[in-house]
Amino acid sequence: MSVIELRTPAEIEEMRPAGHFVASVLEATSKAAAAGVNLLELDALAHDMIRDAGAESCYIDYHPSFGASPFGKVLCTSVNDAVLHGLPHDYRLRDGDLLNLDFAAEVNGWVADSAISVVVGTPRPEDLRLIDTTERALAAGIAAARPGNRIGDISRAIADVAKAEGYPINTDFGGHGVGRTMHGDPHVPNNGRPGRGLPLKPGLVIAIEPWFLATTDRIFTDPDGWTLRSADGSRGAHSEHTIAVTDGDPIVLTQRG
User: Fold this and answer.
1) Per the annotation, where are the binding residues?
2) Can you list the residues of the chain whose pLDDT is less than 50?
3) Closest by CA position to 120, among listed 95, 150, 145
4) Of 41, 24, 23, nearest to 32 (Cα)?
5) Span 180-223, pLDDT tens digits
6) CA distance 77 to 60
7) How far apart are CA 22 and CA 13, in angstroms?
8) In which order are the strands placed within the sheet that holds 205-208?
9) What is the pLDDT of residue 68?
10) Could you tell me which of 215, 204, 196 has the C-alpha nearest to residue 247?
């Protein structure tokens, strides 16, 4: 039986440093992503920032049932047709690459998780549209994260944005509870029925993470045992924030900028 933990206002305040740190790493790595930069260099940058902040990686020893081995890196770097769990490897970014960066870390015993998609150098209009759709879907999901609603209302808000743009939706991987660990209940799929699922109450902390592929909802696992790629080679984008449900507006703990 799953246990959904609700955080007190004081605990949510204690989670802010983790959120700020995760946001700062995504800002730094996305700015460093340029043609000629190696994915391993981006991972090393995130690793240095973890060390300097006295934080703990959520990824390096992470070994869930779907992973072939412990992840071994601290940053997910998914390029072009890769959309989730991209294992950093010896690849130099090229002009026009679509890069998804996903990062989670623990600070003072609390975890935050966030993701961002960027284009390296010269963008394709279709990639910018895909990224914009994930960002608008994320904003819609966050706006639905209010007491009186349910998880299904978040899921439907996300799906409505994707469907309006004609993107297929995969529900194998989605949002999740966040707290003392990176992944917990409840699961927050990117498609669902309004009025269904867990009631949203103040103190619920979740990661909301819409991700879409341009022309398919099917994925497969790369030979590295981690990286998830589109079944048809189409590109993917991913946006994510850790948020807290309150009596009023939701708090975005991983807000950048």
Assistant:
1) 85, 102, 113, 176, 183, 209, 240
2) none
3) 95
4) 41
5) 999 999 999 999 999 999 999 999 999 999 999 999 999 999 99
6) 14
7) 15
8) 184-188, 175-177, 205-208, 241-244, 251-252
9) 83
10) 204
> Structure tokens of 18?
């983790």
Question: So what's the pLDDT on residue 2?
Answer: 66
How far is the C-alpha of 175 from the C-alpha of 195, rounded, in Å? 18
Kindly report whether the peptide bond that precedes residue 186 is cis, defined as omega within 30 degrees of 0: yes
Please work out, in degrees rounded to the nearest 5, the angle formed at the alpha carbon of residue 59 by the alpha carbons of 191 and 144.
Answer: 25
Q: Is 40 helix (H, G, I), strand (E, B) or coil?
A: helix
Binding region for a divalent metal cation: 102, 113, 176, 209, 240
Return the amino acid letter for 170.
N
Annotated binding-site members for substrate: 85, 183
Amino acid at 13: E
* 3-state SS assignment for residue 41: helix
Beta strands in 28-145 (DSSP E): 56-57, 76-79, 82-84, 98-107, 110-119
Helix, strand, coil % in the chain, rounded to nearest 5: 30, 25, 45
